[in-house]
Amino acid sequence: MAQIQQFLPFILMFVVIYFFMIRPQQKRMKQEKQFEADLKVGDKIVTKSGIHAKIAELGETTIIIETMSGKLKMERSAISMEMSAALNKK
Question: How far is CA 75 from the centre of its chain?
Fold first, then answer.
């Protein structure tokens, strides 16, 4: 019984860390993967580097975006989920 009481603070700390740090991070990663999977041609997006564009073509891991200065090939993971959602709400 004394050993359990000795390790109880560590167990509680791990549970708190899991619910406040690990679980939200996993949820965010899942949302980002879903966002990348839901992209379609014609969507207006903002890249993580701040480039505003429209999707011209979709590949499995890459996309071709159309900007005012031409077309660029980028990785799907370079699209900002938060900024693109804010842009589409306008």
Answer: 13
Q: Report the C-alpha dihedral over residues 83, 69, 34, 32, rounded to 10 degrees.
A: -50
Element spanning 74, H or E: strand 70-75
Q: Is the dihedral of CA 30, 36, 37, 40 positive or negative?
A: positive
For 29-44, how does the pLDDT look when each residue is reduced to its tens digit (9 = 90+)? 999 889 888 889 999 9
Residue ranges in the chain whose pLDDT is less than 50: none
Crossing angle for the helix pair 23-37 and 81-89, nearest 10 degrees? 60
CB 21 within 8 A of CB 13: no
**Confidence (pTM):** 0.67
Amino acid at 4: I
Torsion, Cα 71 77 83 85, to 10 degrees, reads 100
